[in-house]
Records
---
Amino acid sequence: MVGFAGYWMPIQYSGGIIAEHEWTRSHAGLFDVSHMGQLIVSGEVALEALQALLPADLSSLPLGRMRYSLLLDENGGILDDLIVSNITGDEGPAFYVVVNGATKQADIAHIEARLPAGVRLDHLAGHALLALQGPESAAVLERLFPGIAGELGFMQGTSRAFGAATVGIGRSGYTGEDGFELSIPAEHAKRLVNLLCAEAEVQPVGLGARDSLRLEAGLPLYGHDLDTNTDPVSAGLAFAISKARRADGGFPGAGRIAGLLADGPQRRRVGLLLEGSAAAREGSLVFAGTHEAGKVTSGGFSPTLGCSIAMAYVDAEHGAEGTVLEAEVRGRRLPARVVKMPFVPHKYHRKGDA
Amino acid sequence: MARFFTAEHEWIEVDGDSATVGITDYAQAQLGDLVFVEVPAVGTALAKGKEAAVVESVKAASDVYSPVSGTVTEANGALEDDPALVNSAAEGEGWFYRLTIADEGELDGLMDEGAYKDFVAGLD
C-alpha cells in the first residue's frame, strides 16, 4: 500500500503487477479509482462557463456523450486533464467532470473562482469510482446491467438503478482496452465490488498495472507527462481542441495555442521504444548524438511488448517517427527509437463496430 | 560452506576464498516481478557495501550491494534472459555473481541465517 493523492492505495493485489497487467489485457481488471475527483457543474449557463475554462466544444456534445478535455491556465499550460460528460436533465444543463486525484482540490478552487452567478459546482466527495477494464468487461457488466453493452459505445454514458442507489456508467477508461467506469455512492460500492469480483473474468488490479497499462496505451499521466509547463499541442493532445474552438478562441491561452498549432511546437511528446528491458524512467535525458534533445517523462517495462518503453518530450526536429535517439540510464546511453503511440493498439468498442 | 546475510538483503555463500552472491527471497518478494537484472562483468573489482548489480521491477530500479570486497570471477548470464529466475529461486539458481574474497575479515559483521530471520521478522 502507498499513499497516493491522500489515499492509501495498493500498488498490487496478490497477483503481482505483471499478472494483473496481463489479466486486464486478456480478461477484466477491476480498479478502485475513487481518489479521482468527480464534479458536477450545473446551471443555466453551465456550458458557457465550462467552455471559458476548457478548449472543448460542448455545444456539439450530445446528452450522454463524454469527451476528453484539458483545464488550461492563461498561457495555455495544462492544469489538469479530464473527461467531461453531458448529463443535462430535467433540472437543466449539467456536466459531469472527472479530474485527477492529486489535482482535484486545486481544480475545484480554480473552477469555482471562475464560475458566473447561477452556475454551481458540486464535488461528489462521497462517491466511489470503479473502473472495469479489459476485453471481457462488457460481458461481465451485461450480467449485472442487462442491455448495457449494446446501449453504450466508447465515450458514451448512462445511469442505472443498483438497489436503492443510482450508478453512473461510462464506457471509457485508462488502459486502452474496452471498459467501463462506474460512479456510485460509497456506501453501495462494496456490494458492487463484491458482485463484480465474484465473476470469473474479474480480478482486482492495483496502481502498478494501472500505470503500465496506460503507458502502453500512450495515455499521458498528469504531473509526469503533463503539467503547467506543457501545452496541448506539444503534448500531442491537439485533438482535444475542438475545431470550432480553434476558430473562435475564447478559452484560456487560445492565442498562444493558435500560434503553436500554426507554427508547430518546439518540442513534442513522443513514444520511445528501447531494445532491452532496462527502463528509461522519468528524468532520463534523451540524446541525439552529443546533443541533449529532451527528457523522459514516464517510462518502464511493457509486459505486452516484453521491452522497455517511455514517453519523452524531445525537440521537434528529433521527434520524427523512426528517429533513433539515445536515453541515458545509469550513465549509459541506450538506443531508443521514436515510435507512434499507442505502443499497444487501443481496443475501444465504438458503436457500430461488430 | 557457510552462508551469510546483509541488512540490505543480500546473501553470500562462502567456499574457501571465493563466494557466490545473490539477493534473499525476502528481497525478491519486496521488489515484485523483476524485469531486468544487470550483473557485474567478470574482472570487476567490487567494494564492500558499494553497488554491484542493479535489479528492476516494473515500478523501480534498485541497487544490489556487494557483501564483501573482491573481484568478480563469474556472472550469472541466465538472469539477462530470465530475470524472473530471481523471483522463483532467489537463493538458488537466481544467484548474481561469484567473486574472490579480498579480505575474509569483512565476513565478520554479516548475519548468519538465524540472525537474518530474526532481522526480517522485526521488519514487518
---
Amino acid sequence: MLNADGEASVTKGHVVRVLSRRTVLRRIIQGLGLTLALGPAVPVVQARERAAQSDETDRLITRVARPLDAETPVEEFVAYLTPNSRFFLRSHFSPPPLEQLSDENWRLRVAGLVEQPLTFTRQDLKQFEAITITAVVQCSGNGRASYRPKVPGVQWEQGAVGNARWTGVRLVDVLKKSGLQTNGRHVQFQGADHPGAGTVPPFVRSIPIEKALHHDTILAYEMNGRPLPLLHGGPLRVITPGWMANSCIKWLTDITVRYDEAQGYYMQTAYRYPTRPVTPGETIAASDLKPVELMVVKSLIAQPRESASLKSGPVMIQGVAWTGEGTIVMVEVSLDEGRTWEPARMIGEDLPYAWRQWQYIWQATSGQKTIFSRATDDRGITQPETSPWGPSGFLWNGWDRVRVMVAE
Amino acid sequence: MRSVLSVTAIGLPGLALLLLYGQTGAAPDERAGMAARAEGVVIARCGSCHSTDLITQQRLNRSQWQGTVGKMVQWGAELSEEEAVLLVEFLATRFHQTAPASVTLNEIGAAEPLQAEPLVIQERPSGISQEGAGVFANNCQGCHGSGARGGFGPKLAGNPILNSERFWQTLLYGRGGMPAWEHTLSRQEIANILAWLKTL
C-alpha cells in the first residue's frame, strides 16, 4: 500500500521501516471512514492526520483485510449504542472511489416500474421528512464460526452486529414521489461499489414490496447523529429494521422497482437458507431454500469476557438481546450447562428493532464455570441450544456461552 | 502462455470431475514442492481479488473446497486446469475440517517486514501501454479500482509515484498491504502496466 508512511520509509535507503499491516489497515480505515464524516471541505490528508490521533477503529477484529470484514469485540456491547468507529464492517468489494460519492457526482436514481423515473441529489432528499430509528444491524453470517461441520464464508464469531440510531428518509416516500406502478412486487437496490473484475457478479439485491413500503424502512444518511461514514455506506444506505443486513445496501445509487426478485448470484444463490432440516453434503433443491430476511431471537453476553478471571462473590453478568420485528420478553441465564435457568433483569430502553439490555447478579463460587444465556421473544420463540445447520451458515442463534475462572 | 481453464468450454460438471479425479499420489518430497507451488498460486491468483486470510480461516472438507474453487474459477480466477487441481489438493489437505486454528500459509503472504530492496533495479524494459490495460485488469484492479481510480488501494491515475523509483520497488517487493509481484509478473508486464497508467 502506498501512503505517506510508505514514502517516508524509502528515503532511509536500506533501513526500511517496518510498517505493520495492522497499522496500514488502521490508517486506511481512519482515512476513509472519517473523510465523509468531516465533510468535503476538509482535505483527505488533514482528515487522515486527525483520525490518526484516535485509536478507536483499532478495537475491531479484522476477519478479512481486503475487502474489509471486521467485527466488534463482544465486550463493547455493554453500551446500548454501538459507536460508529466500533461498528462491524462487511464489504463485498472495496468502497467506491470518494469522488463518485461527492455531493457533485453522487445521485440516487429511481427507475423500473414507476410512473416517472427520478434522480435525486443529497440536497433533494431533504424535501422528505427525516426520521430516526434505533435498530440492530446484523450480518447474516454472524456466528458462522459456531457451526459444526464448518461451512465456507467469513468466520464471524459474535460481533458482526451492532445497535445504532439511523436517521434518513422513508423509502416509501421516495417511491411515492416517482409513483409506483401496480405490478411492482420487488424493490431492487444497487450501490456504487463494484467488483474488481467483470467476471465477478455485482452485489445487487431486492426486498419484497411489503417491506419496501413499510414506514420503518429507511434510506439512512446519518448513523448515531453523525454523517454516515464511508465504510458504513455513506452517503446513503438502506436500513430494513428487523431484517438481516444483506438488504442494507451501502453506497446506494440505484433503486429499481421490479415485478420479480433481483436476478444474479447475490439474490438467487447467496443469502439463502434451507427451510427444512438438512444434513451436511446433501443436495438441497432450490425450492427448499429461501432468502435470509428476518433476524432470529438471540442474546449475547457482553460481560464478563471469555476466559476472565473473577473473584468469588457477586458478579454482574450483562448483555443484550434482540429479535426480528418483535420484542424481547425474557432473557435467562444458566450456570449448570443449561439444566436450570434463571430470569435476568431487563434494563434500559425497550424499542422495536433495537436490542434490549439485561443483567443478572451471580453469586459466583470458585472453579471453572460456564455462563449461558438465552432469550425469548414476544412470539414465544426461545433461542435454541444450537441453530439448524445449513451449508452457508446463516442465522446462527445458539445459546451464548462464556467460560470464566472464579478464584476463592 | 498459460492455458487458462475455460468454464464455458468444459462446464462446471467438467470442472468437478477434473477436481475429483485429478488428484495426485505424490511422494512426500514432491508434496512439499507442491505445497510451495500451491501457496504461490494462492497468493498470485486468489490474492489479486481478496486477502488470503479469507482462505486460511476456512476449515473445509474436500467437497467444500472443490465447490469454492469451482465458484472462483467461474468468477474469473485465472487458474489453469492443473493449478485448480493442485489448489484443491493443497487446501483440502492443509485447511481441513479439524486442522488446528494455528494452521496458515507459510512465509509468503506476510507483507511484513518489508524486504530491504536493492537500490537500483536493473532490468527495466520499456512498456507497451496497450498491453498494460489487460494485465492491470487481471491483477491490480481488484484493489486499485477500474481505470485505476482507487478503491481499497490508492488511486494510481495521475499519481506521482508513476514517475518515481518507488513504483518499481513497490511493484516488485511490496509495501504495507501491497503484495510483492516479483515472482508473479514479468518485468515486461510491469513495464506495460506502468505505460498504461501513464496514459490515464
